[in-house]
Amino acid sequence: MERYDDDALVLSSVDYGESDRLVTLLTREHGKLTAFAAGARKSKRRFAGALEPFMRLRVHIVETRGSTVRLDGTDIVAGFYAAREDLSLIARALYAVELCRELTRDHEPQPELFALLESYLTRLDAKEAGPTSLLAFELSALAHAGLMPRFDSCSLCGGAPGERPRFDQAHGGAVCEPCGARARESVAVPVALLSGLRALQEGARTPLPPDLRARARGLLNVFIAHHLGRRLKSVDFMAQVGLD
Ligand SMILES: [Zn+2]
Fold first, then answer.
1. Where does the DNA replication/recombination mediator RecO N-terminal domain lie (predicted)?
2. With contact defined as beta carbons under 8 Å apart, do 33 and 106 qualify?
C-alpha cells in the first residue's frame, strides 16, 4: 500500500457507519479523492474539526485496493474561520465546493482547479470576494472542466449574437436571433448581460449591476444543471439566505 501526502480542500463529508466519515477531497496532485476516515466521529482528537467542508488541509493518505483511499491523518493549513461566521460567505463557499465536486472525476489531477478554489476561498475569507467574484469563479471552473459557455458568438452558426441575442444552455451559450428561433429552450437575454459575462471570462473584476447579476445567476444555474444533469443543492441554500 502506497502512502503519500498532498494538499487538499474538503469538498464534502458524510457520516459512514457507527463512527466513521467519508470525505470527498480535491487534492492538488491526485485530483478528487473519496477518503475513508476511520473512527473520525469517535476520536475527536485525531481529525479535530478538520473534515468540515471547505477546510484547507495537508492530508496523509494510504492507498487501498478500491477507488476509496484511507485518510491516515490531517493537518489544518487554513480553516477560513472568518468566512464560517457569515451565512452568506458560507453559502458561497458551499456552492463553490459543490460545483468543483460535480465538475471533476476521481483521480484526475486538477492542479489549476485546486489553485482556483483555494484562491477563491482565501478571498472570501478576507471579505474580498463579492457576488460578481462568484460568477467569475464559476466561469473559470467551467472552463477548466471543458464546459465554458460561449457569450461572444452564436453557439450554433458562429456568427455575431446580434442586437437581440438569446441564450440556449443545450447548445452551449449565446445564440443569434435566427438560430434562437430554432432552439426551443432558448431565452432572450440583454446584450449587456452577454458582454458582462464575456468580460468576466476574460478576467475583468468590475462588479456587474444587481439586475444583470441576478440574470447571470439564473443563466448559469440553468447551464450548469443542464450539463451536470441535476441542479446543485447549494443553489437553494444561496437563495434561502437571499443571495443571487
Ligand atoms: Zn446563429
1. 1-78
2. yes
- What distance in angstroms lies between residue 155's CA and the mean position of ligand 1's atoms? 7
Distance CA 93, CA 12 (A): 11
Q: How far is the CA of 172 from the centre of ligand 1 (A)?
A: 12
CA of 149 to the centre of ligand 1 (A): 15
Instruction: Provide the residue-wise pLDDT of the chain in tens; the chain has 244 residues.
Output: 799 999 999 999 999 988 999 999 999 999 999 999 998 888 777 888 899 999 999 999 999 888 899 999 999 999 999 999 999 999 999 999 999 999 999 999 999 999 999 999 999 999 999 899 999 999 999 999 999 999 999 999 999 999 999 999 999 999 999 999 988 889 999 999 999 999 999 999 899 999 999 999 999 999 999 999 999 999 999 988 877 7
**Could you tell me the domains of the chain?**
3-78 (2.40.50.140), 130-240 (no CATH)
